[in-house]
């Protein structure tokens, strides 16, 4: 169903998008959401695109406002009816997806929403990524960047309306042709029937594109596609090698690049460093943050660059990026750092001091790598003074356009970004560091397409890591074991500092999952102390929740055990006034059989999280076959994400989030020594494998909640649910992630020590 | 110059003897279905079949591949009709999809040797890494392809 071709022949490249974008649109002056485009021109659609070196990248004719009206998208030629859909004469409908596909199934999910109102059958639908950097295709919330589990939340309503507008425009044409009235015209399965006659959308499309869209068309969707587990459109291409990921791009005359960064974080090269071309390669380039070698294949490039030994100019304090120092600083900041208050209710510290039972626990979480299976990769063709074309696995196509205009001085109209399938994003491909490097290399080999591929070692040692965190929770309990106070003091570096949020403000990412808890504590205080380390930090799937939920849900469990109350009952009491949360918690408990004793030698632990607009609760059932070992047998997961557009994909996101999070909880961590990242490849960055994967059961709770995200919320509960089960079973409490830092190696097959 | 047989076709490649088969496939021959994940024989993204046996192509020098039948994911079937490919689609296995070529090749080798594998045999054979966490569906798809009730 998808149209990404295999590219064994170097003269072909699968084109994700062949549409240029207008400068006005990119400048953000025209943030359209819905089919506001009316004028249409018949056009060829531009044919095979600019991979041959024309560099224009524009495959469609363009209206004066920069909106394409006809286009060749991934080889399909058709007519736009509204911005979001392209209808072919053969009655196929290509729906443009403004979010980037990284495995979350978003191309399918967003297309389901459009197709529901458009009244087309699923087998008529094809999906392509929308043109990058054109805000016509951007949801108002994320403006074309994919992340924050925002896609469905950001697009849902707008895309339903867009589908409905296009449907009405097609009906208008049918009525004009056949007579009858709009009220009597029926759209179904890609046809309009009126006045006894029927026409396909394909036959109506060209004229429909010239209709003025109705301002508020009726939404008639009744769950024909929304809420159905339709098959994902991108999956067939992912079982035969034909899906083209960023790392797979091949262009005529392409050369290959590899980079070596400073082993110590933050190191740069002197502008006067001018490396000689290593033998067997085409060129060595000083790109400031790294030295690059260009060769006729990736292997030659990476071997040659590995042999270069430039001297690096290190920033002051570079070697202070050192785990022992960072941990010591965290302890100092915990004891005496100046906090910023993130949440306050009553006098939590006073209540704690006056409580008959006072708990105080400290939890720690490590830095972590994203470790997407596809390392950073980006291909660039730079034609000086004319154009720059970029093919990248990116969560942030609009940022890529910005990088290119800044580096090349070209206007945005001369920049074409092709967002490729991502081999995992996980928050890493939101960054544009690798794109910057690829553009700089391309500028050194003008007129030649160059593909930069980072080695796994560069990828793991130059990540923007999930920040470490040190958290101290104080809970006061009254004589009946009821909480009187909740305090949480979080020491962690700021991700948003890099994006201009001053260090004098609470970093919202740092406290996500720690504030706004649904539990009814009589008093609350959540403080944030910014850790000053310069270790590079970034967004890792579920961001602050990835450690804050571990802290919160572990601490609540500890309070329940201290109070002698069943952990589920303890939470239920605190959620008495939060029926939605209670329903999800209870659903997970029921799925796990919480009320029945687990098999001998096993115990269960429970946790819940709210975030990304969704509520998730999970129960882990574990055993501890030998001291210091742990087997997770089953994870039962309940999610309320409001509207589950594609329930099977909601389930898939829960499965994937749980599996990633379990590996992280057990083994994954990044440490630093004298400015360098210690872990360099998967052999010492252990992730879950099939044989360690528990049974996973997922239930979707439907209770009329607003639509929520699903990409991230599966992650946070795993660590605390497992830790809580382990404490129940063994009496030993994990307060530090990962649980087994010394079993963090991974081999080819068997042999890892658990 | 090395003569290789890949998916039943002959290729002559002019590369150094020590160049890993992975990079020959991806950058020289242009079969990009075989993926680079680690380059150190840990992740399995680069798995291909060599005379029917699963091999991690990132650590197989091209000279070792001469005279052998190499099968990549592109050669699993001409039209996505391999029972495993059908099962992979039916069970909606891939997420990002990056590991799936290696997974499919590993699974193909498993079923060739062990047409009705037990769960433990599947776990032992399928040692590749999937960062997206598609393992439950991979297992279900292998069982479906093998005609084993879930
Ligand atoms: S790339 Fe060969 S095993 Fe990872
Ligand atoms: S599907 Fe993404 S790594 Fe396996």
From TrEMBL, chain A:
InterPro entries per the record?
Ald_Oxase/Xan_DH_a/b (IPR000674), AldOxase/xan_DH_MoCoBD1 (IPR008274), AldOxase/xan_DH_MoCoBD2 (IPR046867), AldOxase/xan_DH_Mopterin-bd_sf (IPR037165), N-heterocyclic_Hydroxylase (IPR052516), OxRdtase_Mopterin-bd_su_IorB (IPR012368), TAT_signal (IPR006311)
- Give residue spans, biased composition: Gly residues: 43-60
Q: Where is the composition biased (Low complexity)?
A: 61-70
Taxonomic superkingdom: Bacteria
**Stretches for region Disordered:** 40-71
Q: Which Pfam families match?
A: MoCoBD_1, MoCoBD_2
Where in this chain does the record put each Aldehyde oxidase/xanthine dehydrogenase a/b hammerhead domain? 240-315
An example Gene Ontology molecular-function term: oxidoreductase activity
Protein name as catalogued: Aldehyde oxidase/xanthine dehydrogenase a/b hammerhead domain-containing protein
TrEMBL record, chain B:
Name the SUPFAM superfamilies on file.
2Fe-2S ferredoxin-like (SSF54292), CO dehydrogenase ISP C-domain like (SSF47741)
Q: Which UniProt keywords apply?
A: 2Fe-2S, Iron, Iron-sulfur, Metal-binding
- Sections of the chain in a coiled coil: none
Q: Where are the transmembrane segments?
A: none
What CDD domains does the record tag this protein with?
fer2
Which Pfam families is this protein grouped with?
Answer: Fer2, Fer2_2
Q: Which PROSITE patterns match?
A: 2FE2S_FER_2 (PS51085)
Q: Where is the 2Fe-2S ferredoxin-type domain?
A: 1-76
Q: Which InterPro entries match?
A: 2Fe-2S-bd, 2Fe-2S-bd_dom_sf, 2Fe-2S_ferredoxin-like_sf, 2Fe-2S_ferredoxin-type, Beta-grasp_dom_sf, Diverse_Oxidoreductases
Q: Name one GO molecular function term.
A: oxidoreductase activity
List the protein's name.
Answer: (2Fe-2S)-binding protein
Organism the protein comes from: Prosthecodimorpha hirschii
Q: What is the lineage of its organism?
A: Bacteria, Pseudomonadati, Pseudomonadota, Alphaproteobacteria, Hyphomicrobiales
């Amino acid at each position: 169903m998808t149209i990404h071709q295999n590219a064994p022949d170097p003269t072909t490249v699968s084109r994700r998008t062949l549409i240029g974008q207008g400068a006005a649109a990119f400048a953000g002056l025209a943030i359209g959401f819905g089919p506001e485009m009316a004028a249409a021109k018949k056009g060829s659609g531009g044919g095979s695109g600019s991979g041959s070196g024309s560099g224009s990248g524009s495959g469609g004719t363009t209206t004066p406002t920069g909106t394409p009206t006809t286009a060749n998208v991934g080889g399909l030629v058709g007519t736009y009816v509204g911005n979001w859909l392209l209808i072919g004469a053969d009655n196929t409908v290509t729906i443009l997806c403004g979010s980037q596909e990284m495995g979350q199934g978003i191309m399918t999910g967003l297309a389901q929403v459009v197709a529901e109102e458009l009244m087309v059958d699923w087998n008529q639908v094809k999906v392509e990524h929308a043109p990058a950097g054109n805000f016509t295709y951007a949801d108002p919330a994320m403006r074309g960047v994919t992340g924050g589990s925002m896609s469905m939340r950001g697009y849902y309503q707008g895309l339903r309306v867009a589908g409905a507008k296009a449907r009405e425009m097609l009906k208008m044409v049918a009525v004009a042709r056949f007579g009858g009235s709009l009220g009597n015209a029926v759209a179904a399965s890609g046809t309009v029937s009126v006045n006894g006659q029927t026409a396909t959308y394909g036959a109506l499309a060209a004229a429909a594109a010239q209709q003025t869209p109705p301002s508020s068309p009726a939404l008639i969707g009744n769950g024909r596609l929304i809420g159905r587990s339709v098959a994902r459109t991108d999956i067939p291409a992912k079982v035969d090698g034909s899906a083209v990921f960023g790392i797979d791009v091949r262009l005529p005359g392409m050369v290959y690049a590899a980079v070596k960064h400073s082993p110590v974080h933050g190191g740069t090269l002197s502008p006067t460093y001018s490396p000689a071309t290593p033998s067997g390669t085409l060129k060595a380039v000083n790109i400031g943050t790294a030295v690059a070698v260009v060769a006729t294949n990736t292997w030659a490039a990476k071997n040659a660059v590995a042999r270069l030994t430039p001297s690096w100019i290190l920033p002051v304090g570079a070697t202070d990026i050192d785990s022992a120092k960072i941990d010591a600083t965290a302890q100092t900041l915990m004891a005496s750092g100046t906090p910023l208050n993130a949440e306050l209710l009553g006098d939590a510290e006073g209540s704690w001091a006056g409580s008959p039972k006072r708990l105080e626990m400290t939890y720690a979480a490590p830095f972590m790598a994203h470790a997407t299976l596809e390392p950073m990769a980006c291909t660039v063709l730079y034609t000086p003074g004319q154009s720059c074309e970029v093919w990248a696995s990116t969560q942030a196509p609009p940022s890529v356009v910005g990088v290119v205009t800044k580096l090349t001085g070209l206007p945005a109209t001369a920049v074409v970004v092709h967002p490729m399938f991502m081999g995992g994003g996980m928050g890493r491909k939101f960054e544009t560091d690798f794109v910057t490097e690829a553009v700089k290399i391309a500028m050194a080999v003008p007129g030649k397409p160059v593909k930069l591929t980072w080695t796994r070692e560069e990828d793991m040692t130059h990540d923007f890591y999930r920040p470490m965190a040190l958290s101290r929770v104080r809970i006061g309990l009254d004589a009946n074991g009821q909480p009187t106070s909740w305090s949480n003091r979080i020491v962690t570096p700021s991700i948003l500092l890099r994006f201009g949020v001053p260090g004098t403000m609470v970093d919202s990412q740092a406290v996500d999952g720690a504030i706004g808890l649904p539990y009814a504590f009589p008093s609350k205080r959540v403080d944030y102390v910014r850790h000053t380390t310069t270790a590079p930090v970034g967004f890792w799937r579920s961001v602050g929740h990835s450690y804050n939920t571990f802290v919160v849900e572990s601490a609540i469990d500890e309070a329940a055990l201290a109070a002698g109350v069943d952990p589920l009952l303890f939470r239920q009491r605190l959620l008495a006034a939060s029926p939605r949360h209670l329903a999800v918690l209870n659903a997970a408990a029921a799925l796990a059989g919480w009320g029945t004793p687990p098999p001998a030698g096993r115990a269960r632990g429970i946790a819940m999280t709210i975030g990304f607009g969704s509520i998730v609760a999970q129960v882990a059932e574990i055993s501890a076959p030998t001291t210091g070992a742990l087997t997770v047998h089953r994870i039962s997961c309940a999610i309320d994400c409001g509207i589950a557009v594609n329930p099977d994909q909601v389930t898939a996101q829960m499965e994937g989030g749980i599996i990633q999070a379990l590996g992280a909880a057990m083994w994954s961590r990044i440490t630093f020594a004298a400015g360098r990242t210690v872990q360099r490849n998967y052999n010492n960055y252990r992730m879950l494998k099939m044989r360690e994967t528990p049974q996973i059961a997922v239930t979707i709770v439907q209770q009329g909640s607003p639509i929520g995200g699903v990409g991230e919320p599966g992650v946070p509960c795993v660590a605390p649910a497992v830790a809580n089960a382990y404490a129940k079973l063994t009496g030993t409490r994990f307060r530090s992630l990962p649980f087994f830092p010394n079993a963090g190696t991974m081999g080819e097959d068997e042999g890892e020590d658990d | 110059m090395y003569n290789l047989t890949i998916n039943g076709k002959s290729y002559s490649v002019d590369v150094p003897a020590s160049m890993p088969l992975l990079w020959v496939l991806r950058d020289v021959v242009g079969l990009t279905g075989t993926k680079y994940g680690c380059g150190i024989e840990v992740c399995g993204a680069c798995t291909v079949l060599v005379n029917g046996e699963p091999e991690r192509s990132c650590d197989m020098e091209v000279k070792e591949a001469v005279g052998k039948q190499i099968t990549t994911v592109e050669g699993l079937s001409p039209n996505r009709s391999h029972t495993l490919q059908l099962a992979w689609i039916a069970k909606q296995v891939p997420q990002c999809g990056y590991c799936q070529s290696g997974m499919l090749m590993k699974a193909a080798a498993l079923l060739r040797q062990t047409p009705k594998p037990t769960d433990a045999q599947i776990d032992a054979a399928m040692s590749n890494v999937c960062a997206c966490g598609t393992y439950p569906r991979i297992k279900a798809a292998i069982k479906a392809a093998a005609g084993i009730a879930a």
